[in-house]
Amino acid sequence: MASSVADRAIGAIIGAAVADAAAQPMHWIYNPDRLNEVLSDLEPRPEFRPLSANPFYRRTTGEQTCYGDQAYVLLESLSQCGDVDVKDLTKRFYEFFGPGTVYDLPVNDPYRKEGGPKAILPIDGPWRNASLKAFLKNIDGVTKLAPVVAMFAGRPKMLEKVESAVRVTQNNDMCVAVTLAAARFLERFVLKGPDPDALDAVVAQLSDPNRKNPQDLDRAVVALPGAFQAALHGVLTMTQLEEAVRDTMRRGGCTASRASFIGACFGAQTGLRGIPESWRKRTLRYPLLLELAENVVGKRQQL
């Protein structure tokens, strides 16, 4: 049975979160020998490793990375406000990641002086990535765009809303340009489902002088930089969410950021039916995520 736009919008949100949780125990393994050692105990299903192999931080399997947590905070804000409310989102980010939270560990201190005592890794708790540290000091784009695209796909201001949300923590022109390119892909999948012409269509949009929400760096993004290219490769060459996430996990490095975009794109093509039920059950926040996702997508009709 064909999925509806609403089904696919919910799938995008849940797909991103589930894939992030699946990759979390193997996030940030950059040593090839260590990666191969870890994989040898898990293949052919490296997802949801029972014990974290992350060399930087440890969280309970099924919890989100800092990327998944950012997307969750954004989803909460959208559910409550029915729109991208920068003031509300800023407050929620500070309350979730700031002083007195599980993220408030010495190694994560945005004011930590260089040359001070080195942290003993891995830490027991979550890790603030660079953008969160900068956000907390000055009060990651693709990884948290699914809730905004799910709410505004097909609406004239979709890209504007994505940019407003991203710049709360990552006020960086290249990050914004890459995130908007990713949003264009995800929007097509939400609106159309599987789309073999997605790459050509998005490249054409980025090259169009009359494109919506133009960025000075759009032409540079046509070259598909870095991790975005790796994530997009999984979306365009694989046929199932779990297959694509497993493949990107085998590459090591920032697996969770790539996995979340891959999960969002596959979820947007299939809806919940394309996201393995066993993966959903192992994502600890899934019931709440589903409730929030349904509420956010339900508000699409009011826009």
UniProtKB/TrEMBL annotation:
Name of a matching Pfam family: ADP_ribosyl_GH
Keyword Repressor appears in the UniProt entry: no
Keyword set includes Metal-binding: yes
An example molecular function term from Gene Ontology annotations: metal ion binding
Cofactor binding note from Swiss-Prot or TrEMBL: Binds 2 magnesium ions per subunit.
Cofactor: Mg(2+)
Keywords assigned: Magnesium, Metal-binding
Binding site for Mg(2+): 257
UniProt similarity note: Belongs to the ADP-ribosylglycohydrolase family.
UniProt name for this protein: Selenoprotein J
Taxonomic source organism: Gambusia affinis (Western mosquitofish)
